[in-house]
Design a protein that fits this description.
This protein is mainly alpha-helical. The protein is globular. Helix 2 runs antiparallel to helix 13, helix 7 (about 240-245) runs antiparallel to helix 8 and helix 10 crosses helix 12. The two termini are about 15 Å apart. The protein is built from 13 helices and nine strands. The chain has helices at about 55, 60-80, 105-120, 120-135, 165-180, 190-205, 240-245, 255-270, 305-320, 325-340, 360-370, 380-390, 400-415; strands spanning about 10-15, 25-30, 40-50, 85-90, 95, 105, 150, 345-350, 355. The protein has a three-stranded antiparallel beta sheet with strand order 1-2-3. The protein is about 40% helix and about 10% strand. A hairpin with a 2-residue loop joins strand 4 and strand 5 (about 95).
Length: about 425
């Protein structure tokens, strides 16, 4: 049975006064179970029914846009060995390889699943999810219920701990799969699996010996890893948490609504007020953070950090809950387009101070700068989108990360990165 018939809340869809006609207000009233001390929880969320096609707005032909999307999917999933990084292994399993590190990561597997559900490729989605559950899912020890963040390509674990960005993307991709395709049984009961992941993320550690949660229970902010008390700004996905507040286990929905609010507020602190840049790691107050046990600095605008502006722009496009996101997107685009005159291959402090060396993922910067145009206005928004359109997929051993962010930006700017409601 499809999971649409087994939801534990009632959603009343109606048009509210003052809401544009291309949006509908989904007001979800969640009735408590008997003796539920949390009381009655109401989540009011406006779900978009129209998604901007920024490429079409700038005059690109729809046939050309569609062809770019199809060609990008084919290259990543079924291109030659020099270009693809999706690898079927037989028995209905497949993995996404981090080509720069020659391993399989929850980051890449969850990204691959999200790309598949957005482009309606169910067979590939199921093959990736099957590999994840077969090789990455941990059933014993304090991390039981989480996923090993890195494995060798033969499935041998490289780590016995998780990375929270994988879990949150797994859960969101699974919910979207449930909304788009319906649910099957076992691990293909997508919505049930998503709820199970999110339950572990919040409730581990409540009993002795059961590990640690991925979100701080007091400040509602996601951790970099469960053992630490700092965060990664690019992990903050308030647009996902808003949807979790509708679809997660009933008792946890208030937490997710507050997590969305807390992450939006945190990003104000983490992003520089002039450049719009943020660091890879931050303290919970937004201060750039560097781990003392590592030689490489992470208090810079570097690889992980590029995703942050893309995440904020998608949040703005879906929910428009924070006008500051548009202002920050414009600051970041101004920094790259005017201060740097279009340069995207450097390394910077978050205040814009240049540092020696070159970016490891320059195509990722071009892609995420363009995705910022979902929120930004002004002349730099168009410049960033056109520059991205004229940028090809990356070749070479570092192509995995750049091309994942490239594909996300391509989908987002064409109106094809969408919410698939339960």
């Amino acid at each position: 049975m499809g999971c649409r018939g087994c939801c534990i809340y009632v959603a009343l869809l109606k048009i509210e006064p003052g809401i544009p006609l291309d949006f509908a207000a989904a007001i979800c009233y969640i009735e408590p179970k008997p003796n539920n001390e949390r009381g009655r929880f109401m989540a009011a969320v406006t779900l978009p029914t129209h998604y901007r096609n920024v490429f079409a707005e700038l005059g690109y032909a729809q046939a050309e846009i569609d062809a770019r999307i199809e060609n990008t999917f084919h290259t990543i999933f079924y291109g030659d060995e020099a270009h693809r990084f999706y690898h079927p292994t037989g028995r209905g399993l497949a993995y996404i390889e981090d080509t720069g590190n020659h391993d399989v990561r929850t980051e890449g597997m969850s990204y691959g699943m999200m790309l598949c559900v957005q482009t309606d490729h169910k067979a590939e989605f199921d093959a990736l999810w099957s590999w994840v559950m077969h090789y990455m899912y941990m059933q014993d020890g304090p991390n039981a219920g989480y996923f090993a963040w890195s494995c060798q390509t033969d499935g041998t674990p490289n780590a016995n701990g998780p990375a929270p960005d994988g879990e949150e993307y797994f859960a969101m991709a699974l919910f979207f799969a449930a909304g788009r395709w319906g649910c099957g049984s076992g691990i293909y009961d997508y919505a049930a699996m998503a709820r199970r992941i999110l339950h572990s993320c919040l409730h581990k550690g409540e009993k002795p010996g059961t590990g640690r949660p991925m979100w701080d229970p007091e400040n509602h902010l996601i951790k970099f890893i469960t053992e630490c008390n700092f965060t990664d700004p690019s992990y903050h996905l308030p647009h996902f948490y808003t949807l979790f507040s509708l679809w997660a286990n009933e008792a946890d929905r208030p937490f997710w609504a507050e997590a969305a609010r807390a992450s939006r507020a945190f990003l104000h602190k983490a992003c520089h007020p002039v450049t719009g840049l943020c660091a890879e790691y931050s303290l919970y107050d937004g201060t750039p953070h560097n781990r003392s046990d590592r030689d490489q600095r992470h208090d810079l605008y570097y690889s992980d950090a590029y995703r942050t502006i893309a995440n904020m722009a998608l949040d703005y496009a879906w929910f428009g809950a924070d006008p500051w996101q548009a202002e920050n997107a414009e600051r970041l685009q101004k920094f790259f387009c005017e201060t740097l005159c279009g340069r995207t291959n450097g390394i910077w402090e978050i205040d814009g101070t240049p540092l020696p060396g070159e970016a490891l993922h320059p195509v990722a910067i071009t892609a995420t700068n363009a995705q910022a145009s979902l929120a930004a206005g002004g002349p730099n928004a168009e410049v960033c989108v056109r520059r991205f359109w004229n940028t090809p997929l990356r070749d070479g051993p570092r192509r995995y990360y750049d091309n994942c962010l490239y594909f996300f930006a391509l989908l987002a700017l064409s109106g094809r990165y969408r919410i698939w409601p339960l």
